[in-house]
Design brief:
single chain; 299 residues; alpha/beta; six-stranded mixed beta sheet; three-stranded antiparallel beta sheet; 11 helices
Length: 299
């Protein structure tokens, strides 16, 4: 069940606990629940449906679990989304020294060596918690990074609270690297140009709204549509690719990153393999995935 909130406004608390070390700050998050963001406030609408009930229903359906377990999954997502608010505060203060305590340095080192050895890469990911940190960590190591996502403001209705942290994260990234919005058009050619100009680009492929015009993949024993533009980008840029997914099962643990082996051009990028690896990551930490709220628009 959802924990009671002890503070009226998480935006007041997060700047205060941001002076703590990450482990101490995360312990405060675990203790205080969603920090001023209870269930009733999370019934804000994303697109045209209420977010929390939609996420709970999806977790029940696709994980084949009972309602209490599904509520725990979605509650954990909200906790991790609040954690992102804290991490936004750290990054806005340029406290990059915390990055090795936020995300597994071993996995980031592995991706960094892949880029150093292969040149600019296409990193295909999903809406797992929290892909922003992969970008920040590689940026802080000196890599030229770029990001393509759906504009988070486009899914907001009635000032949806759960998107606040994502909007601020995207704005912070845009201050230090190119950020492209897939729903603005022309992003395929722009992404190809970035790759040819030395940028490693991270893209999310679990995006809704591509029924009948994308590619079908199988996850959770059902078929879903995902955008296929990544295949064209890969072919035109002739860039090596890899799948990367960040996740954590616990609020006070660093983000882990699942990293595939490099897929060298001209070997094709297999979106079904991407989907299978995404599902495997989500099953390890189901509260780490935003996808529960959007799967209904991927069928």
């Amino acid at each position: 069940m959802y924990k009671p909130c002890l503070f009226a406004n998480y935006r007041i608390l997060t700047p205060l606990i941001s002076h703590l070390q990450p482990r101490q700050a995360y312990a405060v998050l675990r203790t205080t629940g969603t920090i001023g963001k209870p269930l009733e406030r999370h019934t804000s609408y994303l697109f045209d449906y209420p977010a929390a009930p939609t996420g709970i229903d999806a977790a029940m359906r696709y994980l084949k679990i009972e309602r209490p377990q599904a509520e725990a999954v979605i509650n954990n997502f909200f906790l991790l989304e609040t954690r992102l608010e804290l991490e936004n505060t750290w990054l806005s203060r340029k406290r990059g020294q915390f990055i090795h305590q936020i995300i597994d340095p071993g996995a980031i080192g592995q991706i960094s060596r892949m880029i150093q050895g292969n040149g600019p890469m296409l990193l295909l990911s999903g809406h797992t918690t929290y892909y922003f940190m992969i970008l920040w960590a590689l940026h802080l190591l000196g890599h030229k990074m770029a990001f393509m996502m759906v504009d988070p403001r486009s899914s907001v209705r009635d000032n949806a609270i759960m998107q606040d942290s994502v909007i601020r994260s995207a704005d912070a990234l845009a201050a230090v690297m190119p950020v492209l919005f897939a729903n603005e058009g022309g992003t395929i050619s722009k992404t190809v140009e970035l790759l040819k100009n030395g940028y490693t680009v991270l893209m999310l492929a679990d995006i809704p709204g591509y029924q009948k015009r994308g590619k079908r993949v199988r996850m959770f024993q059902e078929d879903f549509w995902v955008p296929s533009g990544v295949l064209r980008i890969r072919e035109e840029a002739a860039a090596p690719a890899a799948f990367v997914f960040s996740y954590t099962a616990e609020i006070d643990q660093p983000y882990q990153v699942a990293v595939s082996s490099v897929i060298y051009h001209p070997d094709p990028v297999d979106l079904q393999q991407w989907a299978s690896e995404l599902e495997s990551t989500v099953r390890k930490a189901p509260g780490s995935w935003f996808g529960w709220f959007i799967l209904k628009d991927m069928i």
